């Protein structure tokens, strides 16, 4: 029978090439991702631009995502600080958050200078870091978790499963930890001073923001039995 | 079966009706325009409709059209199964028989090639030299050509998911050791990669004009978010900056001033170039973004090729197409909705 032959061949071959393909992508496919597939992102910072070996030959003309309005060659520009500003911002008030964070960096520097002058020996003085950007980067790195809990529905009930995630997601979670520990305190004290103390503590692996990361890791260990739910 | 017969009859009557109307309307149009109907082409018709029924809709498929129905409706309504109701194609029930036919053939070939490799490996022969993969020389079909291939030949509507799977399968196949029949099969779905790179027009970049006093200059427009700027750059200058008659104090915030100076600092031409700008519309940051866009495009002829590459890589030469979203009916603002009520 012509019908049955076709059906059996189709089902066997479907099984073969589905296995080979299904493991290669795990995200939902949207039309936008195909539209922007040919668009190349522009460079994030000036250091990257200079690192690209640029000869006198003309460059290939590509559809580039244009540079944002915060991108500048000033010494004070940093992509991670800009991300922090965007997440802190509420109701689209960007100038207010910028002033807060400028104050925060100032406060960090003042405190570190105090510590520098308090330290007596040369070895201790060398250990104190006065660059506020470095302190900022270090604090955010210490707050980033390695795994995240994601709810997966199986058999009608939702389980919280530990899962890997990429850098962008981890950055965002780390910054959220810092911000949420500072929001709970009373607002008689301005935000900038509270943030500055939190960031200094996180740089030294102390404080509540890093505590939240440790708590997350403990919960992931507790839910270790469900880790295989990620693949079905 | 009966439903299919019904639909075929309706389709035929539809096409006959539409062709009659089309012919009638064509003659009337020719009469109006003063041309003989045999000499009228589709371009005449398109022009006439753009004049008589103008529309500002963005979607070109929804504007008024006047075409022969064979361009819009599919003419062939062949029966894909015989009198007893059995379909001819062995994958008719997948609803996309031709697509799955191609995919299953490719998968079948991959299995055969794998078995051969296992056979060769089990004999204990030494590994052969690596060959050039086909995927390095060939580019697989684009999304649009892929959709058109199935729509025009087989009148099947394929989705974006299927295009992704197609590309993945073909690249996997092309990385194996292929026979001649496999190469012929794969060449249907790809085109050889062109070695030509699409390069920026060097003539356009290096165009400039000369003043009455003998100074070289170039003007370019910059756009951002409803702000329009006209920027002129004079070469061999001292570093004058003028915006609407004022200096850089026209902008009050630090970030707007940084935007204006950014392309000059990148190309290290702060004190070598004069800039005069005129700005209208928008707000503070929008105006500064427009000046930045115009400045970087106007600086190009007075700067080395290395800097031109840098400016293009950093994304300063492209217009930012982000614009405020429109309000929609049934909602308060673009995304904000009215309060939900149970009844």
Automatic annotation (TrEMBL), chain A:
Transmembrane segments: none annotated. The keyword Ribosomal protein applies. PANTHER family: RIBOSOMAL PROTEIN S7. It comes from Magallana gigas. Keywords: Ribonucleoprotein, Ribosomal protein. It holds the Pfam family Ribosomal_S7. Belongs to the universal ribosomal protein uS7 family. CDD domains: uS7_Mitochondria_Mammalian. This is Small ribosomal subunit protein uS7 domain-containing protein. InterPro entries: Ribosomal_uS7 (IPR000235), Ribosomal_uS7_dom (IPR023798), Ribosomal_uS7_dom_sf (IPR036823). GO terms for biological process: translation. GO terms for cellular component: ribonucleoprotein complex; ribosome.
UniProtKB/TrEMBL annotation, chain B:
One of its GO terms (cellular component) is mitochondrial small ribosomal subunit. Pfam families: Ribosomal_S9. One of its GO terms (biological process) is translation. Residues 323-343 are annotated as: Disordered. InterPro entries: Ribosomal_Su5_D2-typ_SF, Ribosomal_uS9, Ribsml_uS5_D2-typ_fold_subgr. Belongs to the universal ribosomal protein uS9 family. PANTHER family: RIBOSOMAL PROTEIN S9, SMALL RIBOSOMAL SUBUNIT PROTEIN US9M. This is 28S ribosomal protein S9, mitochondrial.
